[in-house]
Design goal:
The chain is built from 30 helices and 22 strands. β19 and β20 form a beta hairpin. The chain is an alpha/beta fold.
């Protein structure tokens, strides 16, 4: 790929060859931004810039890895010397090098969300606060938001606006919890995910010598997906590039969809104000999608006021019109989408992995899962329980973390009595009290337990202490795999899982073996110079969901995922489902123009994932918190230029005699612009509305029964649907559903935790 410049279009070439000074690359969807960023870095190296002096920041490890391999194909092994990775991984590396300046040691732990919430739960309990008001999720979110705005505990407590906001939310003690949480993390030699950015800002603010060192180290700073940066990330990159002013940002304001995580679209909208001498280059040619899809996306995003204007175009084929499916219910939507996938597979000779179903919230996946299963179409859900969040995995990781960092209080609490060794909560509480009274860490007490506890209670703790000390001896001599394998065996975790011969027990045992395989793969990877357990734990703690592998190695599956999760991906055929008011756009995003415009950008992102074919769908009714709700078509359906839409051929299925027949192309509707389209949708919705049933009047003695003993064949009464017979029960963990044949309302599947049924 030595002649890579000749493969670029003119704007791409300008961006790659740009010399010194700030550069902003506005990259429309499918415009080859990764290619441009990759070749720009390769070009810098070919021009003599030392790879050690290049800092390239991304948002996923996967993106960083792909870019590094592409650069390697151009410049060779020198690509391995680039400082490239996610914001969190790169700054975690800097923090480990400079840890002493902040009072940490270089082997600090990185708490994941579960660790943080567990610690907050402990503090809330210690302060005798009501955990129904001070919910760990909410408190964690407030603390996280404060850190992303660079508001520390003291500033939080001294800010009257923040205090008034907490008081209005009936949580006036959040500031005190925040201060205690920060202190406990520090005492545990641990940082949470937000601290990796917050503490980097503190490091550069309070230690100008260290800032100066990295400002001169990095001659070029490049940032991908700049529209997704928060205030903290932007300030770090601006400081690092202040001396050489060679900052290159790549992004698309039209794809800024992470405000709920703290992303600030103003960073990219105002970049030209912060860098008046910036060179702005727009990549406007889309290489991914058909003309129909590109022009439909343009017609949507043009309605946003806050944006950097660009004209995205493509030389690709016109392609199919966008199909629009209307279903009577969410279950019917699932069946119609599954049938459409089956038909497209057969007609076009496609594979399952050519398809993706995108929804606004994870809760929408159920109907599509059920429908795909019934048609024997394999699927995978992206965004479910992460491999590294499974209990057995976190248990072994807890041992590994505590072996590396004995100040890690959350890891200690997890493993002290795992497997069970007769150490109760009372004993653990005593250890905590002794540590607090003596001004010692928990490990200092545990490692010398005979000095603080007498009798039989001290024996199992002494055994645990000796075990950890024996693990520590291996750290300097053995690589991560050898240490982890020994710990898995010697701790008793592997044996406990092996002895559990249930299906679940076998699965857990195999999961732990898979973790050990991952550690072996890490050790065997020639790109990892540091093979230590500490290095592996850092790599794991910084993984994103996009970095995880398939469980079974079978990649030929239809993908089900949220639109947020799909950012940066592309699929041949895309289904965007649940296009209803209050669902998409979300009812929580209708309070301001800024919120609505973010929802519109989210829809734009969804549309532009499609290469060849796009299908949109909505349901006229769906269950919401156990209640059947009538739905309106999303305003976004009305905002798409109607020339690009057609009604999909809805199909009849057993038990659905009143499903609509195929509708004509929307382009054949009478003139009248958007209002004509609104009327058309309304008319079609009316034609397809479910047949009304006679309203049921509940019995005078109606009272919901305990449904824990509900069985098939029982007669029941429902307040709305009337009398019926239970046909089947579907129990999945704690979620229990009943399939009921109602005398007048037909067959319904009800979630028993919400449905109020009287057994008659």
């Amino acid at each position: 790929m030595t002649d890579y410049i000749s493969t670029l279009n003119e704007p791409q070439r300008e961006a790659v060859l740009h010399g010194d000074g700030p550069l902003m690359i506005i990259a429309g969807a499918g415009s080859g931004k990764t290619r441009v960023l990759t070749f720009r870095i390769a070009q810098l190296i070919k021009q003599g810039i030392d790879p050690f002096q290049i800092l390239s920041l991304t948002f996923t490890n996967k993106a960083a890895g792909e870019m590094r391999h592409r650069i390697e194909r151009v410049v060779g092994n020198e690509a391995r010397n680039i400082w490239m990775g996610t914001f969190h991984s790169v700054f975690a590396k800097i923090l480990r090098i400079e840890a002493k300046a902040l009072g940490y040691t270089s082997n600090f732990s990185i708490y994941d969300t579960d660790d943080s919430k567990s610690l907050l739960r402990s503090i809330i309990k210690e302060y005798a606060l009501d955990d129904k008001i001070y919910r760990p999720n909410v408190v964690f979110s407030r603390i996280s938001g404060a850190k992303n705005r660079l508001v520390g505990p003291d500033d939080y407590l001294n800010n009257p606006l923040i205090q008034a906001d907490d008081a209005a939310a009936r949580m006036p003690e959040v500031g005190r919890i925040y201060k205690a949480y920060s202190l406990r993390c520090f005492q545990a030699n641990a940082m949470d995910f937000d601290d990796l950015l917050y503490n980097t800002n503190i490091l550069f603010r309070d230690h100008l010598d260290i800032l100066h060192k990295y400002q001169h180290k990095f001659k070029h700073v490049l940032v991908d997906e700049f529209q997704d940066t928060n205030i903290s990330q932007y300030l770090i990159t601006r400081k690092l590039s202040a001396v050489n002013r060679n900052i290159c940002i790549v992004g698309d304001d039209a794809q800024s969809i992470y405000a709920f995580r703290g992303a600030n679209i103003e960073n990219i909208l105002n970049f030209e104000k912060d860098f008046p001498d910036v060179r702005t280059i727009k990549l406007e040619q889309n290489y991914r999608s058909t003309k129909t899809i590109v022009q439909a996306a343009n017609s949507i995003i043009a309605r946003n006021r806050g944006q950097l204007k660009k004209s995205v175009f493509t030389d690709n084929e016109d392609g199919n019109l966008i199909d629009l499916i209307k279903a009577g219910s969410d279950n019917e939507e699932g069946r119609l989408v599954a049938s459409a996938i089956f038909d497209q597979k057969m007609q076009e000779g496609l594979r399952n992995n050519d398809f993706v179903v995108l929804y606004r919230t994870n809760a929408q996946s159920r109907a599509f899962e059920e429908a795909l299963r019934k048609m024997s179409i394999k699927y995978r859900i992206v965004g479910g329980l992460s491999f590294y969040q499974r209990k057995e995995i976190k248990d072994l990781l807890g041992y590994l973390r505590f072996t590396v960092n004995q100040q890690d209080e959350e890891a200690f609490k997890r493993i002290i009595n795992l497997p069970k060794r007769g150490i109760g909560d009372t004993t653990i509480a005593k250890i905590s009290v002794i540590a607090a009274e003596q001004g010692l860490s928990i490990w200092e007490v545990v490692s010398e337990i005979s000095r603080y506890l007498a009798g039989r209670a001290a024996i199992p703790i002494e055994v645990f202490s000796d075990l950890i000390k024996s693990f520590q001896l291996l750290l300097e001599k053995k690589d991560a795999y050898e240490v982890a394998s020994h710990i898995a065996r010697a701790s008793g975790l592997l044996k406990e899982l092996y002895d559990d011969k249930t299906v679940e027990g076998l699965a857990r045992y195999e999961n732990v073996q898979e973790l050990l395989n991952a550690i072996k793969e890490f050790v065997d990877n020639p790109e990892n110079d540091d093979k230590s357990l500490s290095a592996f734990l850092q790599a794991v703690s910084l993984l994103t969901s996009a970095d995880e592998k398939e469980d079974d190695g079978d990649n030929d599956k239809v993908t089900l995922m949220t639109i947020h999760g799909a950012k940066g991906l592309e699929f041949r055929n895309v289904f965007i489902v649940g296009l209803e008011e209050d669902l998409f756009p979300s009812q929580m995003m209708l309070e301001s123009r800024a919120d609505l415009e973010e929802e519109r950008r989210l829809f734009y992102v969804a549309i532009t994932r499609a290469e060849k074919r796009l299908t949109l769908s909505y349901a006229e009714s769906r269950y919401h918190y156990g209640r059947l709700k009538n739905c309106e078509p999303s305003r976004f359906l009305l905002e798409i230029n109607q020339d690009f839409l057609k009604m999909a051929k809805s199909r009849r299925s057993e038990g659905d005699p009143d499903l609509p027949r195929p509708e004509r192309d929307v382009r054949d509707t009478p003139s009248g612009g958007s209002m004509a389209f609104v009327r058309t949708l309304a008319q079609k919705t009316a034609r397809q509305a479910p047949q009304p049933t006679v309203a049921h009047v509940p019995s005078s003695d109606f009272a919901p029964s305990d449904t824990s003993a509900l069985e098939p064949g029982m007669r029941i009464e429902h307040m709305k649907f009337g009398f019926g017979t239970v046909k089947a029960l579907d129990i999945n963990g704690t979620e229990r559903k009943a399939v009921i044949q109602f005398d007048k309302a037909g067959e319904k599947t009800l979630l028993l935790s919400f449905a109020k049924l009287k057994i008659v």
